[in-house]
Amino acid sequence: MEGSSKDTDGGMIQTWLKKHLVNYTGATRHPFILSIREGTVDLSSFKRWMGQDYIFVRAFVPFVASVLLKAWKESDDHSDMEVILGGMAALNDEITWFKNEASKWGVPLSNVVPQRANQDYCRFLESLLSSEVEYTVAITAFWAIEAVYQESFAFCLEDGSKTPEELKETCQRWGNVSFGQYCHLLQKIANQCLEKASDDVLSKAEVALLHVLEHEVEFWNMSHGEI
């Protein structure tokens, strides 16, 4: 897959988002997200998402740790490590949040069995742990994973949304302005890496982005009950 010339404003990421708009929209405007925004979500689907996402977040931690290690080894910008470390620190709070929320909703996390879409996504994360995977590829995937959640849940908080009160805290967790700024920093780092990348690495990063979007759609499908 060829790395196309970068968008003059938003770098390569923006170019790819335009090129793969259908895929990105599928991940950020999925029927599961729309059902939250419209207030029609089946709460059993929400509980399913919560249990499965808890498992995913635990698999996400070593992935983020590997991105941090790659930044230390490969990045010439010391601020990269600080941004990634901040995200990693937030994951500790996130795991605690999941445990507290699961308790409120009566979701027994210790009994949750990872479904196939979740297993596939976690295997994809594991494939990115390899030292052979370039920092540019890993940071692009990292940005994409965070950005899909940010844009999806922020959509549920926009004016005109009918998101149920009991789900607003969840949406706020990823849809808030601060998390949006964090995602913007990750996008900036990814663009800086992509700017200097070879055609081969550009191609790998674009494929990684598409894999993230595919896995996100499958994860929402699973949560929505389309197993």
From TrEMBL:
Residues 25-223 form the Thiaminase-2/PQQC domain. CDD domains: TenA_E_At3g16990-like (cd19357). Keywords: Disulfide bond, Hydrolase, Thiamine biosynthesis. It catalyses: N-formyl-4-amino-5-aminomethyl-2-methylpyrimidine + H2O = 4-amino-5-aminomethyl-2-methylpyrimidine + formate; 4-amino-5-aminomethyl-2-methylpyrimidine + H2O = 4-amino-5-hydroxymethyl-2-methylpyrimidine + NH4(+). Gene3D superfamilies: Heme oxygenase-like. It is an enzyme of class 3 (hydrolase). Its EC number is 3.5.99.2. The keyword Disulfide bond applies. Pfam families: TENA_THI-4. One of its GO terms (molecular function) is thiaminase activity. This is aminopyrimidine aminohydrolase. It comes from Liquidambar formosana (Formosan gum).
